[in-house]
Design brief:
With 180 residues, the protein is an alpha+beta fold. The protein is 14% helix and 32% strand. A 4-stranded antiparallel beta sheet has the order 1-2-3-4, with no helix packed on it. The protein has a 4-stranded antiparallel beta sheet with strand order 5-6-7-8, with no helix packed on it. Strands 9-10-11-12 form a 4-stranded antiparallel beta sheet, with no helix packed on it.
Length: 180
């Protein structure tokens, strides 16, 4: 009980110190020498960001219910079903960059697209996703991609074929919120 009270006290102190630092009451030496910039809707940054990743070429990619936004620090470009034929869905839940710098986007209704060489292309396998949204993406040391879905379990993509792991294979649930 005493440890719990001590940890709560430490948490209150840290949160209080953080609040005072962010309000400018206490100067935090950890942040001296850093420039902080805030971007918002005026810069083209969407609201309600659901996914974010930075690609090796320096772009910041943001996913939300309106599509996928690419931001270079000055200009934002929105990609969605109105601007890209490949994107038949707008709602982007997950973004991931592979070891070979390919951006993968997990969208609503089981759509997975990749972005490389300046264009989007579908990866296929929509029938395996069973119209379930892709909530997370990761890669293993062999280059296989794994997709967390909201009802179709975990889907593995080896670059050619998709395979599903569900409660039948031992998962506790077919609704997977995140994966790493």
């Amino acid at each position: 009980m005493q440890k719990l009270q001590q940890s709560n006290l430490i948490l209150v102190f840290v949160l209080s110190f953080y609040s005072l630092c962010s309000a400018g009451v206490v100067s935090n030496p950890l942040f001296h020498g850093y420039n902080i910039r805030q971007w918002g809707q005026k810069a083209g940054i969407p609201e309600n960001i659901q996914a974010m990743v930075r690609t090796p070429d320096g772009y910041l990619w943001l996913g939300n219910e309106h599509g996928i936004t690419r931001f270079d620090g000055s200009n934002a470009t929105l990609f969605n079903r109105h601007s890209e034929k490949t994107l038949t869905e707008d709602d982007c839940y997950s973004l991931f960059v592979t070891h070979d710098s390919i951006l993968y986007c997990g969208l609503y209704n089981g759509l997975v697209v990749s972005y490389g060489d300046g264009h989007f292309k579908p990866t296929g396998g929509r029938e395996v996703f069973k119209d379930k949204s892709i909530l997370g993406i990761c890669e293993d040391h062999l280059g296989n991609l794994y997709f967390a879905t909201d009802g179709a379990g975990v889907i593995r993509f080896d670059g050619k074929n998709f395979s599903a792991f569900t409660t039948r294979e031992g998962l506790p649930s077919d609704g997977i919120q995140a994966i790493c």
